[in-house]
Amino acid sequence: MIGKITGRIDYRATDHVLIDVRGVGYLVYCSERTLAALPGVGEVTALFTDLVVREDLMQLFGFQTLVEKEWHRLLTSVQGVGAKASLAILGTLGPDGVSRAIALGDWNAVKAAKGVGPKIAQRVVLDLKDKAPSVMAMSGTLAEAQGEVEAEVLEPAVAKPRAPVPAATASAQAEALSALGNLGYSPGDAAGAVAQAAGEMEGASTPDLIRAALKLLAPKG
């Protein structure tokens, strides 16, 4: 299994890149969002990868973060969702957007992805609703540990360091989910409330997210 590759981009296409790893070229398919974030031809990059092997086909799919890779794995486990549809969903919403849409049951957001119809979008939300909390928690843990994928330096003159993305928001969501779970709320309800609160309060701290989520979870009337 090829789990991650680091190398120089030889060329870019509309749905894939060719990455040269010490003389061996790997064709890696990515979402539009991931492709747009990659450096230019001739520069070094690193991607987490998922290898799909079938009788007549072998394809490598690339992701900037392990969270994006995990969502791809979960999305493709849904009946009717292939790799192409999964990349379309991730390209349209991004990993955080997928977490939020599924936690909130917002299948219309999923349907906005190219080639994804209403029935498939509803199935994605229903099948994966209980998985959203664990992936959101995973997002906070990984962001604290490593930030975005950093390209290994093959040649110092070529590789360009990038500043890691702040992990405060993802970490706060993960901690708020854990706190609500300890208070007895179900994973699905907790994830939906935290996702909605995070969407309304960009950059909110853990206590603020917990307070906002509790208000959303409070009985109405």
From TrEMBL:
InterPro entries attached to this UniProt entry: DNA_helicase_Holl-junc_RuvA_I, NA-bd_OB-fold, RuvA, RuvA_2-like, RuvA_C, RuvA_C_sf
Secretion signal span: none
Region (Domain III): 170-221
Subcellular location: Cytoplasm
Residue ranges of the region described as Domain II: 65-142
GO-annotated molecular function: ATP binding; four-way junction DNA binding; four-way junction helicase activity
Keywords in alphabetical order: Cytoplasm, DNA damage, DNA recombination, DNA repair, DNA-binding
Subcellular location, principal: cytoplasm
Gene Ontology CC, one term: cytoplasm
Superkingdom per UniProt: Bacteria
Domain I as annotated region, ranges: 1-64
Domain spans labelled Holliday junction DNA helicase RuvA C-terminal: 172-218
Any GO BP: DNA recombination
Domain DNA helicase Holliday junction RuvA type: 1-62
Stored NCBIfam families: ruvA
Family to which the UniProt record says this protein belongs: Belongs to the RuvA family.
Domains: entry comment: Has three domains with a flexible linker between the domains II and III and assumes an 'L' shape. Domain III is highly mobile and contacts RuvB.
Quaternary organization: Homotetramer. Forms an RuvA(8)-RuvB(12)-Holliday junction (HJ) complex. HJ DNA is sandwiched between 2 RuvA tetramers; dsDNA enters through RuvA and exits via RuvB. An RuvB hexamer assembles on each DNA strand where it exits the tetramer. Each RuvB hexamer is contacted by two RuvA subunits (via domain III) on 2 adjacent RuvB subunits; this complex drives branch migration. In the full resolvosome a probable DNA-RuvA(4)-RuvB(12)-RuvC(2) complex forms which resolves the HJ.
Protein purpose: The RuvA-RuvB-RuvC complex processes Holliday junction (HJ) DNA during genetic recombination and DNA repair, while the RuvA-RuvB complex plays an important role in the rescue of blocked DNA replication forks via replication fork reversal (RFR). RuvA specifically binds to HJ cruciform DNA, conferring on it an open structure. The RuvB hexamer acts as an ATP-dependent pump, pulling dsDNA into and through the RuvAB complex. HJ branch migration allows RuvC to scan DNA until it finds its consensus sequence, where it cleaves and resolves the cruciform DNA.
Protein name: Holliday junction branch migration complex subunit RuvA
Organism encoding this protein: Sulfitobacter sediminilitoris
